[in-house]
Design goal:
two-stranded antiparallel ribbon; 4 strands; disordered N terminus
Length: 447
């Protein structure tokens, strides 16, 4: 017979149980975020570049760094409030933005927007916390937290990019150039194709590339469209994958510093490039690649390709609705277009090597497998898939770094191995999560 601890029977709570309470967890999370922002701001100030708090202050009262991210954050936050309050919030944000735009133009500053949604999102969170009660309050605060995290993640990411260039005076692009021979040097191929297609195609791909957060918000809002009416949050949705990828992926920038073809082998290298070869000709790298000294401001943000990882996660989440049913055609085609255009842009603009994209795909499938269908728990299938993805991801990075010469010498064999490993992870992912019709809807959380 189970015997209850006397303190528990008397209504006492252990430290562990208190930490699991929603309000305690929220307080801990907010405190951790604040400490992170303050720490990064101090480090940025010491190093002489703009930190996250300074950038956030500009979103409130200065010139926002991004026009789309603050609005994307507000739109995401509005999934947690009623339609009437959405109208009021959007109207207020537009009005505030109009005032700031007018003041900037009168002062001779460039046109941009973003103050309004940042201010309104903050006001929405404060009003919900102070005045609203019950499910109305919980839904609003949870959605506002998601919107705020999206904005703050971009601020932290900007600082991290500065860190990558500060801690690594050299880059490993020569190794990736050789390893990329195994895939047929796709950056050079796609780069030349885009030159032929002209500026119109370039403009479309550039817009797709920089507006990936907006596309993600469209998908996230669609997934969370029933939160207010039902009071039920899905157990898993796109924002979770985006945020975890943004937390995990950039850690490898400092382990495997790479700047990309257009910088290391093109005209944008600011005098540090190996030569001006991209995309017209392959650089004559011999059999002894070495770290390439580079400047102190170009981010080392190529390995893995996070744009590819994020675009693939968007594609995955446009295949099915949160109840397991097939997503509408417009969403499925939109997700496929965004993935294809992002891949074309990352390669054709010279931002990445093909091997970067392979690593990004494997990372995405691994993270998504760790998060998907949380009601299943860590069963054998999930463990196998995450272990496979992690092993392949680590093996790819080790191969790119220490077997680059051999990959260039035997490109057909090396390419077959790389593609085979990628296919193995992709097939395992499909068989685990998509091949069989779901016997139950994904878990939802009633709040």
């Amino acid at each position: 017979m189970l015997v209850e601890h006397p303190r528990a029977a008397a209504g006492g709570a252990t430290l562990g149980s208190r930490l699991r309470e929603p309000r305690t967890l929220a307080a801990v999370a907010v405190s951790a975020v604040l400490l992170l922002l303050i720490g990064l701001q101090i480090a940025a100030s010491i190093s002489g570049f703009e930190g996250p708090l300074a950038s956030l202050a500009r979103d409130y009262v200065g010139t926002p760094k991004s026009m789309s991210v603050p609005w994307a954050g507000l739109v995401l936050a509005l999934v947690g409030v009623s339609a009437r309050r959405r109208v009021f919030a959007v109207s207020a944000a537009i009005g505030i933005d109009a005032v700031f735009v007018a003041l900037r133009l009168l002062d001779g500053k460039p046109f941009t927007v973003g103050n309004g949604p940042t201010i309104v999102l903050t006001a929405l969170a404060i009003i919900a916390a102070v005045r609203w009660q019950g499910r109305e309050r919980t839904d609003a605060l949870k959605a506002a937290a998601l919107g705020a995290l999206l904005i703050l993640a971009t601020k932290v990411g900007d600082v991290w990019l500065h860190v990558t260039s500060a801690v690594h005076p050299t880059v490993l692009d020569e190794y990736l150039l050789l390893a990329d021979h195994a895939l047929g040097d796709p950056s050079w191929v796609v780069g030349r194709v885009l030159e032929v297609l002209g500026p119109e195609v370039y403009a479309v791909l550039h817009w797709v590339y920089i507006e990936l957060p907006v596309a993600a918000i469209v998908v996230a809002v669609w997934q969370l469209r029933g939160v207010v009416t039902t009071g039920i949050w899905p157990g898993h949705y796109l924002v979770r994958t985006f945020l975890v990828l943004g937390l995990v992926g950039p850690l490898f920038y400092v382990l495997f510093p790479v700047v990309g073809p257009m910088f290391a082998f093109g005209a944008d290298g600011n005098g540090f490039q190996f030569g001006n070869f991209w995309p017209s000709a392959l650089p004559p790298i011999g059999q002894s690649p070495a770290p390439l000294p580079f400047d102190e401001f170009t981010p080392r943000n190529c390995m893995p390709s996070m744009h590819t990882a994020w675009a693939l996660s968007l594609f995955i989440h446009t295949r099915r609705d949160i109840d397991g049913s097939r997503a509408p055609a417009w969403l499925r085609w939109g997700g496929a277009f965004w993935l294809a255009a992002t891949v074309a842009a990352t390669l054709g603009f010279g931002y990445h090597y093909g091997v970067d994209l392979v690593a990004g795909v494997v990372l995405c499938l691994t993270v998504e497998s760790a998060l998907r269908e949380p009601e299943r728990g860590w069963d054998a299938a999930r463990i196998r898939l995450v272990a496979l993805g992690s092993a392949v991801f680590g093996g790819l990075l080790l191969g790119y770094r220490y077997l680059a010469v051999e990959m260039a010498q035997y490109p057909v064999l090396a390419g077959a191995i790389v593609i085979g490993l990628l296919a193995a992870v992709a097939v395992a992912f499909h068989l685990t999560w998509f091949a069989a019709a779901p016997d139950r809807a994904p878990a939802a959380v009633r709040v």
